[in-house]
Design a protein that fits this description.
The chain is mainly alpha-helical. It is built from 18 helices and 6 strands.
């Protein structure tokens, strides 16, 4: 039951550019400072001339291929991580059909492919319909990012299908460099706002990945892509849940229990940099340190590979880890197995709780029903926060277990409330 997921999850760590740090030592041999502009990656010179931008103001990746051939060639290598053969989470976790009842994720939920397929993936997902807005394209193409930065919140309110037809470029250079590859730039301004004064406390290379690999919601009035926190301390599952509770926010109403539900997105940044932070974050490492291997072209030119990899697949990165980790790949597999085994166990418990609450829903008194629904909302969010984070606990194993502990505590209270046997 586990084997296929563990294999694909290890590969996914690097290939979809998850947020920083499985290795104990960066390729540079020491932590990059929080204000670093290179983050362990090899910097490049500013271009003498900027290629022509498209109608959105984006210089497309192909336009840079003659100026930065090594980076472009390795960027194209991400195409090997295609949607073909990806895991169907609804099959791996059959309880999700019950857990997501009434929400789009119950219709289709596949393991992510690389950045090269972001537009294809969003175009093919069964989760969109005629009422879907363009805000769902937020992290699928730099062209939409440029549109939002130019037009403001009104861009979020446009029809999904209409805007998608205009988009041609998947995640590429502009997302992390704007139109100057010599700089690292966070182009998603809503994430910059959410970091606030704490932006200087995190390497900018991590923030460029975090601008898409984070927990977000669509503001009810403006439909703008927004983050449920202000600064690093708020980036914990518990604080995010409190934020949503305080604003009475819900993603959907569960069709079986009537609970106002929340769907966690992909909180890699929060898992590494939020709250107490992971060990890697405390040492100042960024995504580039572990997912962009140092490379050398045939002519001897040194550069940072833009083929986003699992760090355990890079001898150059692993060599720097041996001082602190005797067997990092083996340790990662242990962390992931412990996390995913427990995810499966608790998914079964959530499934049983939902079905029992659905049975008792019409007979519970009003206060008890509200309490039972709140338990459903909270327990499932803590579980979801871990499951959808994509590293299977490898980015912050202790935090993953802590959040699953919170899920279990909520469920035990719910089982008692409904007279169920744990």
């Amino acid at each position: 039951m586990r084997k296929s997921k563990l294999k694909s999850a290890v590969a996914a760590l690097g290939t979809i550019a998850l947020v920083a740090g499985l290795a104990a030592c960066a390729p540079g041999g020491s932590p990059a400072p929080a204000t670093s502009s290179s983050g362990g990656a090899t910097a490049v010179e500013a271009p003498a001339e900027i290629p022509e931008a498209d109608q959105f103001g984006v210089v497309l990746a192909e336009s840079w291929k003659d100026i930065y051939p090594n980076q472009y060639e390795t960027y194209l290598a991400n195409e090997s991580n295609s949607p073909e053969g990806k895991m169907d989470y609804l099959t791996e976790y059959p309880e999700l059909v019950t857990m997501y009842a009434g929400y789009g994720f119950a219709k289709g939920y596949d393991e992510a492919a690389s950045h090269a397929y972001t537009l294809q993936s969003v175009a093919e997902t069964p989760r969109v319909n005629e009422n879907t807005l363009a805000n769902c394209i937020t992290c699928k193409t730099p062209q939409y990012t440029a549109m939002v930065n130019s037009e403001g919140d009104s861009a979020y309110q446009k029809p999904f299908a209409e805007v998608l037809m205009e988009m041609t470029e998947p995640i590429s250079c502009y997302n992390c460099h704007e139109n100057d590859p010599s700089k690292v730039v966070v182009t998603q301004k809503h994430f910059v706002n959410a970091l606030g004064a704490d932006a200087d406390k995190v390497p900018v290379e991590a923030e460029t990945c975090g601008q898409c690999h984070n927990e977000y919601y669509f503001a009810p009035e403006t439909k703008a892509t927004s983050n449920p926190y202000d600064g690093l301390e708020g980036m914990t599952a518990e604080n995010i849940l409190a934020y949503y509770d305080a604003m009475d926010f819900k993603d959907w109403e569960h069709t079986e229990t009537g609970a106002p539900m929340l769907k966690a997105q992909h909180p890699e940044f929060e898992t590494v940099y939020g709250g107490a932070q992971s060990s890697m974050a405390k040492q100042g490492y960024s995504c580039a340190d572990c997912h962009m291997a140092p490379a050398q072209a045939e002519d001897g030119t040194e550069f940072s590979s833009h083929n986003l990899i699992n760090p355990t697949e890079s001898p150059e990165i692993m060599e720097k880890c041996q001082g602190c980790h005797a067997d990092l790949p083996g340790q990662i597999v242990e962390w992931q197995k412990a996390t995913t085994d427990r995810e499966h166990e608790l998914a079964a418990k959530i499934d049983a709780y939902i079905k029992e609450l659905a049975k008792q829903r019409e007979t519970l008194d009003a206060d008890k029903l509200v309490e039972a629904q709140q338990i459903h909302r909270h327990a499932q969010f803590y579980w979801d926060f871990v499951m959808v984070e994509n590293s299977e606990g490898a980015h912050n194993h202790s935090l993953a277990q802590d959040n699953l502990d919170k899920c279990e505590d909520e469920l035990k209270a719910g089982y008692t409330l409904l007279g169920m046997t744990w």
